[in-house]
């Protein structure tokens, strides 16, 4: 017991807090940097980009993504969702598979500069994103919910992630994010 107490005391009792530490002068931007990941819309890359194409998608500039990936997105969407099983089937936005995947293949977060900023509020769709927006549920509704946005009988339960709110309330002032646990 005495040995344990002596070892704890010798390792925890030091007087090195008088040493001055010089903070770095700032970030070093002198190197060459490459983009490794992007996610303008959460889960879109995860769901619609085939695993062998993830790195290519992540390093493709958004202006070139539609031409390069829309076909892959459409193939994966129609294989995944019976809501788009037939030509002409539409989602709650009135978009068929080609139109919807054309929107998704360009992985950017759209933003309305003069209107409501929201991922979806019942009226406004994809005009930005508020912190409390349930992005995953909106995406599930657009993928699986059919024309009305209601759960399809072929895929019950796939139109909602069943997470109704953040685990802690967001702040009313900057930085707006909920405090960490």
Structure description:
The protein has 181 residues and is mostly helical. Helices cover 33% and strands 0% of the residues. The protein contains 6 helices and no strands. Helix 4 crosses helix 5. It is globular. It starts with a helix and ends in a 37-residue tail after the last helix. The model is unreliable at 4-11 (pLDDT under 50).
Structural class category: mainly alpha
Proportion of residues in extended strands:
under 5%
Can you give the helix content as a percent range?
A: 25-40%
Element pattern in H and E:
HHHHHH
Average pLDDT number: 81
Q: Kindly state the number of beta strands.
A: 0
- Structural Rg: 24 Å
Number of helices: 6
Terminal Cα separation, in Å? 37 Å
Name the overall outline.
globular
Poorly predicted sequence stretches spanning 5 or more consecutive residues: 4-11
Main β-sheet, in a few words? Answer: none
Q: What structural keywords apply?
A:
181 residues; 6 helices; mainly alpha
Short structural summary:
This protein is 33% helix and 0% strand. The protein has helices at 2-12, 44-48, 54-59, 62-80, 97-105, 135-144.
């Amino acid at each position: 017991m005495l040995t344990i107490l002596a070892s704890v005391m010798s390792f925890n009792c030091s007087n090195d807090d008088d040493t001055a530490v010089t903070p770095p002068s700032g970030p070093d931007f002198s190197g060459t940097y490459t983009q490794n990941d992007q996610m303008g819309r959460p889960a879109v890359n995860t769901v619609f980009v085939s695993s062998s194409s993830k790195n290519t998608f992540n390093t493709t500039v958004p202006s070139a993504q539609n031409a390069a990936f829309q076909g892959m997105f459409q193939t994966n969407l129609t294989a995944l969702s019976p809501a788009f099983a037939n030509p002409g089937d539409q989602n709650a936005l009135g978009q068929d598979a080609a139109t919807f995947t054309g929107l998704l293949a360009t992985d950017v977060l759209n933003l309305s500069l003069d209107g409501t900023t929201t991922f979806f509020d019942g009226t406004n769709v994809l005009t930005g994103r508020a912190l409390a927006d349930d992005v995953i549920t909106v995406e599930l509704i657009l993928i699986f919910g059919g024309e009305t946005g209601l759960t399809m009988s072929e895929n019950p339960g796939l139109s909602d992630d069943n997470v109704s709110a953040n685990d802690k309330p967001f702040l009313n002032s900057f930085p707006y994010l909920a405090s960490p646990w």
